[in-house]
Amino acid sequence: NAGVTQTPKFRVLKTGQSMTLLCAQDMNHEYMYWYRQDPGMGLRLIHYSVGEGTTAKGEVPDGYNVSRLKKQNFLLGLESAAPSQTSVYFCASSPQRGPDSPLHFGNGTRLTVT
Amino acid sequence: GESVGLHLPTLSVQEGDNSIINCAYSNSASDYFIWYKQESGKGPQFIIDIRSNMDKRQGQRVTVLLNKTVKHLSLQIAATQPGDSAVYFCAETNNAGKSTFGDGTTLTVKP
Prior knowledge:
Order of helices and strands of chain A: EEEEEEEEEEE
Shape of chain A: globular
Largest sheet of chain A: 7 strands, mixed
Order of helices and strands of chain B: EEEEEEEEEEE
Number of helices of chain B: 0
Oligomer: heterodimer
Distance between the termini of chain A: 36 Å
Shape of chain B: globular
Number of strands of chain A: 11
Radius of gyration of chain A: 13 Å
Distance between the termini of chain B: 41 Å
Strand content of chain B: over 45%
Structural class of chain B: mainly beta
């Protein structure tokens, strides 16, 4: 099993450009999440999904949109990139949300916005 | 608000020694705690977890201790090996399913 796969691994954008990060999981998990990781700030939840066709806002949703058209895929979009969105982005999945359900993470996408 | 903090940002140990990584949390309603390991260039990986109704749980070479009185969590790694060098995060999950992550402690194992 591949687990959680993120593409691309690296990306450089100019301010104002748009892009989509793709996350795919092959574990048949219901829940999927997008986090960003910044030095000194831990992992912060951007958006999450409790199942196919559903999405919800996390702690830091502004400037991002998401879609979950298929259960195995969770897309994160940046419509107009800003330097403040320079970060490492992690996708995660879990069979349920809460106790006894640790997150399974991908290996991240390093995004630089110039 | 909720916050999870680790006592030390870095920890250096000799190969073969035991390591102890600490974490303080603020939300007394948290129901579930997890330790993750993150190697360079990779995503966090689950190590061990513990429910709030327990105070100790053991895995292979790892033990998690939970002290709810002082809201403190620790990860003990026995006979630390070079492959244990990584960043370690604690995370707490409340009964609504919201997870909060600490900043991480970088463990360096010296040969």
